[in-house]
Structures are given as structure tokens and as C-alpha cells.
Fold this protein.
Amino acid sequence: MRFDFTDEEKAFREEVEDFARTELPPDWDEKALYWPAGYGTFPGIEASFKDMYDELLRKLGRKGWLSLGWPKECGGMNSMTRHVILDDVMSYHRAPGGDVSTAIAAPTLALIASDEMKKEWLPRIAAGELRFWLGYSEPNAGSDLASIKTRADDDGDAFVLNGQKIWSSGAHIADYGWVLAKTDMNAARYRGETLMLVDNRTPGITIRPIINICGIHSFNEVFFDDVRVPKKNVVGQINQGFYCVMLALQYERLFVGMGAFRRVLEELVLYVKETKRQGMTMGKDPLIRNKLAAMAIEIETLYGFYWRTAWMMDRGQAPEPEASALKLFGTELSRRLAGTAMEILGPCGQLERGSKWAPLRGLMNLGYMDSISGAIGAGTSEVQRGIIATRGLGMPRK
Amino acid sequence: MDFDLTVEQKLLQESARDFLARECPRERVREFEETGEAYPPELWRKMAGLGWMGLIIPEEYGGSGGSFLDLTVLFEVMGFHICPGPFFSTVVLGALPVLAAGSEAQKKAILPAIARGEHLMTMALAEPDSNGDASSIMAGATPAGDEFRLGGVKLFVPYGEHADSILWVGRTGHGENAGDGITVFVVKNGVPGIQKTGLKTLVRDRQCELLFKDVRVPKDSVLGKSDLGWPVVENTLEKASVVLCAEMIGGAQAVLEMSLRYARERVQFNHPIGSFQAIQHYLADMWMDIHGSRYLLYKAAWKISEGMEAGMEAAMAKARIGEAFRRVTLQGHQIFGGIGFTKEHDMHLYHKRSMTGDLQLGHGDVHRERVAVRLEL
Ligand SMILES: Cc1cc2nc3c(=O)[nH]c(=O)nc-3n(C[C@H](O)[C@H](O)[C@H](O)COP(=O)(O)OP(=O)(O)OC[C@H]3O[C@@H](n4cnc5c(N)ncnc54)[C@H](O)[C@@H]3O)c2cc1C
């Protein structure tokens, strides 16, 4: 055993730290939103950040850092450990270290796409030129993706899409949809769906904003009205889309933004050390000490799942219950952390960004709202517990 | 034991439910949050017409002389519907202390106007450094001839911008206990020297910062006795915590009912999600949390109504119910999935209130400490 990085990994970490220090805009710390394991305040989700975000992504691409976890044959470094080091450091700075295209779509493509497709898409994704959105959920199909209604009808060299997606995070600032649609209406459950890449600029697509609970435009409804998708954009095999999505979901569960947890804890610790209430430094209050210590322990526990999952993947093992545990534990911890932050800040915690009395820029308050989302998106906590119990622990299904 | 409400209380409850269901749909609540108004005027007028503002005001001052328990029943319904406006600040933070400690002249000047819905009140207590107890009060009041001069910053004053009069809590002296030397003043909101700044909070509940700069008030503005104001404040806060708990229980009940309805209707995997054990367990926990809490709430309210010492019960209720409401709301969110994470959906209205309700008037830690003190720890 060895609970430390190799020298190369340490050097890499330093390099990423340097990058974050020098390449993020100087006023980034004042502007950046982001709550750990919250899905409603992703770095750069607001349209006003688009240019800055695109530029940053291309810079990461030039460093070769958007493909760290992909296999070598696909231009990657085959190191999930490095991928998560990047994620850890960047998210600490509330900055993006990859996105749907690089962290979810690309590794999936690397596993199941045709050589031709890999050649067409992976280099552009690695360069940070393409942003994707995930088109799974529909109004009547959330946890149960097999009941989607969006249909893709065969029309020679193309499919014709009709239907509606919902909760499509970032569709308004992305280039392509990673869309699951029904291609065989008569097939058995899980056998008639196909995954395809849909160009946002295709005629017939309408994207309508949904404002989330934090007041941020992060997700959308997307409508397809006779949208033609060339067959060469099919990911994997026709009618095997469900299997492809299950693979992609495993990568999605690694999207933790681990450093952001560390950051919040550090900020709270600093706050209570610097703040006095009624003559007493808050950090000396046993109750507050207890709460923050408990959070520190949970965050360290989460790091355990985080590094271990990456380590297993680097050894070619499939982290089945581990990835679900990482997602489940992290998103539930996010809620506890947000609650603890609010309890510590007290009445001032309810003040929003911009108020002179708002501690820590009002971020904890925003985080409190966003912390609900993690345990719902990317497969709910109930679904994750089901996966751990059935696939992980071999319990019988109902 | 008798767990039933009286016939009158049931009538009050039912009529309040009908009224608010009709007059205060959640779209109105949401609309109201965006305006800067003190209250939706139409709604406020009708509430006054129903006698709500005067519910606990004795008949001689234009009210109907109801009990604290009646008020608690009403607050539970208001919490269910998230009824907006300065009802809490006016009736609980204003009328109750005036009733308890005001001079005859003060009562006559204020209470009938409150009962008619024509006078808004609030209390200015918290300061930047405070968690609501006496020792944190720094704002000072100094006598000068037949006046007092008041100065200092107050935070989180509900409806401080809109209230017609403010019960301002400040220090006129020091004594052995932190509460010694604290005085409550009735201050007209129009007098010179008051600077008001609205605070943008999670729940748009019109809290504000009040900066008093050499505000002069006549000597007879003191509510009760000079230097002996803290027990009045404490007593008000105890009652305020209890009605806040009632609002929270009402809110939790609303979340449970919404969740039950949704769990029956929403189908995934060809079954209503309410048929999944995970969801059933949440609903069972939510129900249990609410019923357990309601017992604490009404026991505290009953004791106050009967004039008994209720410090223990009030602290227990506040400590438990703030957390219970948060738990219930989070479980509700879990049941609603993605739809509950939008601005259009009603869940966020309750979610925010579960957090702010838990923080207001002292978070659970503060109240557990009070319980511990009463356990002679
Ligand atoms: C912030 C955010 C961002 C999102 N981004 C995207 C995106 O970019 N693209 C996209 O396609 N989707 C996205 N989603 C949608 C997300 O994947 C769904 O919300 C999620 O899968 C749950 O589906 P649902 O909301 O329809 O809830 P439902 O599936 O209706 O679930 C409601 C409740 O029932 C429970 N439940 C359902 N089935 C079972 C079962 N078999 N056993 C026990 N309990 C069950 C659930 O756990 C939940 O508690 C996002 C969601 C959020 C909140």
C-alpha cells in the first residue's frame, strides 16, 4: 500500500496548480460560482462565461489535459489518476477541468465507436473545440430511460428525430447533443434505443431555457421537429443505445469536482478562525469545531472513493459499486456540507450575493440551493443504492 | 389528555384554509416575492376583515380576545400556504409585547389600529454580531432631558422598511446579568435619523438593516420599564419561536401532501413511484417527523395559552421542528426529482423556508443548549 502519488503525478499536480494560478482571469475568484457535487452551478454554465470558458478549454486542450484518462490509442494518457488530479485542482479553483464531451462522451466513444468515428470526433474533443450536452431525460422518462418517446425514424442515410428532451444541462451553450432515441418501436425494453450525436445547428431543433432553483439558466427543454441526423453519427450499434448510455453513466458518476469540497471546508475553517461572536472566536466553539471536524472526516472518506475508483480504472478494473458509491456519498455529503455551512454562518447565511453583510460572497447560500440537485441528477440516490445492492453486493432484483 | 381542537379552533382552521386556498395560491406568493411591496394589499385587507390581526388582541382594544393556541392554529395554516406579509412581525413581534408590557396609552394607540389592519409593526433586535441573546446587544440609548437618544445598527429587522412603528431594543445600562439594562422603545418609523436598507435574502421576506443615528424619542416611548426590557423580549421570542414552529409544521405538511400526490401519479418503470419501497420509506419518515413534531408544538402552545412556564417545550419544539422541516423538505425534493429543482415548481418556496426557519430565532444548537440548561447540565 501507498497512500501517496508518484513523483510524476506530484509534478503534474504542481503544473496544474501553476496553470490555475496563471491562466484563470484575475477576477475569477470574485465571479466564479460552483458548489461541490451541485449540478446547477457548474463552472461556466452561465452564458456570460461562454467565451472565457471556451478559451480555457482550448488552453487545456493544447496541454493535452482534456484526454488524460482516455486510452493511448485514442491520443490519451491512459491515466484516470491524472484525470482526477486535474479535476481536483481545477474544481478547487471553481474552474472547469473538462466537461460532458471530454469526461463522459469521449471515453465512451473510445470504447465503443467505430475507428472512423473516433478519428472524426476525438481529436476535436481533445482540443477543447466541441461541447456536448446530454439528451437522455424526457418528461416521462427520468430514472426509467427505457420509456423515452423521442423517436428516430430510418430515412436512408439519416434518422429523422421527433420528440422532446428535458433537463438538458448546458444545451444552450453546447455544439452537439449526445442523444438517446427510439429506433425500434416494437423491440423489447432496453433493446430499441440508439445513441447519436446531434448537431445543435440542424434545422428543427428548438432549445428553451428552464431556470433552476438557484435562479440560473442551466438546463433546457429541447424539441426535435423532423431533425435529420446522419447515420454516421450513431454511437456504437443501432438499437444498442441503452448499453452505450450505461457505459457513459459510469463516467458521469466520476464527475465529482472533488477539490470544491476541500475549498468549501477551507473557507469555513478560515471564516470561523477569523470571526468573533460575542467576544469569542467561533473556531473555539466546541459545537462548531465538532461540525467542521465531522465534515473533514467525511471529505477525507470521499477522497478514498475518489482515488480508489481512478486507481481501479487505471488497472483495467470496472469500479461498479465504487463509482456509484462515489456519486452517492459525494452528492449526499454535498447536502450535509451545505446545511453545516448555513448553520455555522447563522442568520447572515441567508443573505444573497452582493449584500455587504453576506459572508463568503453569499456562495454558501447559493450552494445550499444547489446541493439538492446532485442526489437527483445523473441517476438518483435511490437508483445508486439499487446498483450498489444488486450489481455490487449481488442482492436479488425484485 | 385531549388531542382535539375546540369547535371554534376547527372553524378558524377550516375557514383559514378555504380563504388562503382561494386568495393565496402559490403563484401569488411567487409574484409577491418579486415586488417590493410590504404586503399584497387586497389580501391584507381581507385578512384584517376576517379578524386575524386582532385574533389575540382583547376585545377592549378592538380584537376578539382569542388565545395563543388559536394563533398557533392560524399560523400552521398560514405556513401551509406560505401566506406572505407582515403578519408575524406585526402581531407576534409587535402586538404581543405591547399587550404584555405596554402602558394603557400605548395599548390604546397601537392595538386597535393593528386589529383593523392599519398599523404594521416589527422589532429591531439582532445586531451584526448576534445570535439573539441579550449579551450581544450593543446599540445604546442615552437619556437627554425628557428624551432618549438611540443609536446603532440592527440587522434582519423584518419589514423594518415598512413597519409604522418599531420596537427597538437597546442598552440603557449594565448589570450583573447580560439582560440587565436593556430597554425596549416604541419608535415611530418616520422620525429623523433612521436609515433603512433592504436585505436581499434567500426568502424575500423584507428583512432590513436599520441604522439609527441619534434618533430622539420622548421618554414615554419606553415599553414597560427602563432597564427591565429583556424579560419582555425573551417572552416575545419564546412565543415567536412557537408560532414559527407552527408555520414550519404547516409548510412540512404541505410538502408531505404534495409529495404524496406526486408519488401516486408519477409513473416510472411502469409503476407509480409511490409503490417503490425507497419512496414509501421517505413518506413514512416524513409523516412520522411531522406528527412527532406537532405534539411538541401544540404542547408548548397550550402551556403558553394556559399561562404556564413553557421554556422547555418551546426550546424542544424549535430545536426539533427546524430540523424536521429541513428533513421533510429534502425528502420531498428527492421524490420530485428534476421537476422540483426548477424555479416554476413550488418545492423551492418550502425548501428555502425550511432553511431560514431553522436559522431564525436561534438554530437548533441554541435551543438544544437551552434544553441542556433546563436539564441542569
Ligand atoms: C441539476 C440537474 C441536471 C440534469 N442534467 C441532465 C442532463 O444534462 N441531461 C439529462 O438527460 N438529464 C439531466 N438531468 C435529469 C436527471 O437525470 C433526472 O432528473 C433523474 O434521472 C431523475 O429523473 P426524474 O427527475 O424524472 O425523476 P423520477 O425518475 O421520476 O424519480 C422520482 C423519484 O422516484 C424515485 N424512483 C424512480 N424509480 C425508482 C425505482 N425503481 N426504485 C426506487 N425509487 C425510484 C427516484 O429515485 C426519485 O426519488 C438533470 C437533473 C438535474 C436535477
